[in-house]
Amino acid sequence: MAKRWRQYSYADQQNYLRKIRIVLIWIFVFFIIHTLVSGLVVSNRIVENNTMRPGILSGERFVFLSLTVQHMFRDRNEGHLPFQRGQIVLVDRSTEKKPVFRTILDFVVRFFTLQRYSLFSKEDNLYVKRVIGLPGDTISMNNYIIRIKPSGENYEYTEFELTESDYTPELPQPSKLWDESIPFSGLMDSIVLGKEECFVLSDDRSVTNDSRTWGPVPAGTITARALVRYWPLTRLGHP
Prior knowledge:
Blueprint: H1 2-6, H2 10-41, E1 42-46, E2 61-66, H3 68-73, E3 88-92, H4 100-112, E4 126-133, E5 138-142, E6 145-149, E7 157-158, E8 188-192, E9 197-201, H5 211-214, E10 217-218, E11 222-231
Antiparallel strand pairs: 1-2, 2-11, 3-4, 3-11, 4-9, 5-6, 5-8, 6-7, 9-10
């Protein structure tokens, strides 16, 4: 009977409201931390196609390190970049402008729907690619293999000689009917990358979008680099 009357106690009601406020505050704090971590530190991503085979397959999952903060504070005059040749990165090809208020609201929506819904276009404009050329490089392609003459160097090197990353691209056998001028013929004339330009490729060099069709990408559109593959467990480790 005493418990029944306690609901009318002012002190108990205040204590109950205090507990609700504490829970709401913790939810808000967790949301802020989650937003900052996922937006400015690390995020996870599922590879949804085989454009990076044979090294990376569809369905594999990676933790990516965000490069947003590094891009904001790096000295562009010094040319320092938060990624290196051979690394797996995310390239943002979106053109949709995102107002600040709508971006914050989108974080809220995605947080409470477990990333299932967004206020922005559902078209995925983030592409998993490999960095091949850096600003100032002179690059060309022969039989799908890139040759690079770094800025200030006198000699050309293959893409594999200028990186510590161990990868093997998938090289197609083009039809004899293919014209050498098309992007997927395996040949490309020399181009010189500008001060803020990078060249990114897929490891599967048959029919897929990358810098052969887009052209060089601005360094600032490379928004994250892969840290670790965490699924499947049999392939756990650095990509």
